[in-house]
Amino acid sequence: MFCWSRYLLWLVILVLGTGSLLTACGQKGPLYLPDPASQQQEEAKDK
Q1: How far apart are CA 42 and CA 20, in angstroms?
Q2: pTM for this one?
Q3: Fewer beta carbons within 10 angstroms: which end of the chain, N or C?
Q4: Which parts of the chain register pLDDT below 70?
Q5: CA dihedral 6, 9, 15, 16 (to 10 degrees)
Q6: Angstrom distance (rounded) from CA 12 to CA 18
């Protein structure tokens, strides 16, 4: 039996999942955890 709503649901899930994976590739910022010492120095500069 053909159920078009089931295929539509899977299509929406596939499109949204692929879109979220592709937009996550453009995230910017450091890809590492900064050293605690350098973070404390930056906080001291701000004050």
Answers
A1: 33
A2: 0.48
A3: N
A4: 1, 24-27, 29-31, 34, 38-47
A5: -160
A6: 10
